[in-house]
Design goal:
Helix content of chain A: 55-70%
CATH superfamily of chain A: Winged helix-like DNA-binding domain superfamily/Winged helix DNA-binding domain
CATH class of chain A: Mainly Alpha
Shape of chain A: elongated
Largest interface: A-B, 27 and 27 residues
Number of strands of chain A: 3
Strand content of chain A: 5-15%
CATH architecture of chain A: Orthogonal Bundle
Structural class of chain A: alpha+beta
Strand order of the largest sheet of chain A: 1-3-2
Number of domains of chain A: 1
CATH topology of chain A: Arc Repressor Mutant, subunit A
Radius of gyration of chain A: 21 Å
Order of helices and strands of chain A: HHEHHEEH
Oligomer: homodimer
């Protein structure tokens, strides 16, 4: 998956408070789908849709262990967001540096 | 707008490479809609839809100046994403600290 396409899917996955809460929970360590679903007042099929969105974004990996499906957070995938934000800041700082250089540049004597 | 609702809209707005490119450009300073549209091979009405998504997320503010609509980036709104990522890291680090304390804790003599 190309980096920009991956970012699209990561941002879509993050655009929902249930999915963000799942990511927060998985930050504490792997959990089964039923453990993850427990705090939410939605049906299991609805919850599974959220898990599938997280999975297809690459933020969450799931694996069957007997009758239980375990979920793990992929922090490297979440780090794409950090990377994107850092790129923006880098662009702004470049601009601020240029402005500062312009403002503090010694003026030619008139 | 509640903070979590705001985050939903911010992440939706970021889930598109055209909109992310607009944010990048606006990081360099304000620009008119037509300036912003120039690099994209899409019609102006399609581009305006992207501007509206950015505007409703609060990431971009627009103001009419004569016949020109000027756009400005609201970095505080983008900082919501930084804040959310920092919260996740904080949760992970708490977990790592607890693990480290567990691993390095002196053992009772048997």
């Amino acid at each position: 998956m190309a980096k920009y396409e991956a970012l699209d899917e990561v941002f879509v996955a993050l655009a929902d408070s249930t999915r963000r809460a799942v990511i927060r929970r998985l930050g504490e360590g792997p959990a089964s789908v039923s453990e993850l679903a427990r705090p939410f007042a939605i049906t299991l099929p609805s919850f599974l849709k959220h898990v599938r969105v997280l999975e297809s974004s690459g933020l969450v990996r799931t694996a069957k262990s007997g009758r239980v499906r375990m979920c793990t957070l992929d922090r490297d995938r979440l780090a794409l967001v950090d990377g994107w934000l850092a790129e923006q800041r880098h662009a702004w700082e470049g601009r601020t540096d240029r402005l500062a250089a312009f403002v503090t540049e010694p003026k030619e004597p008139s």
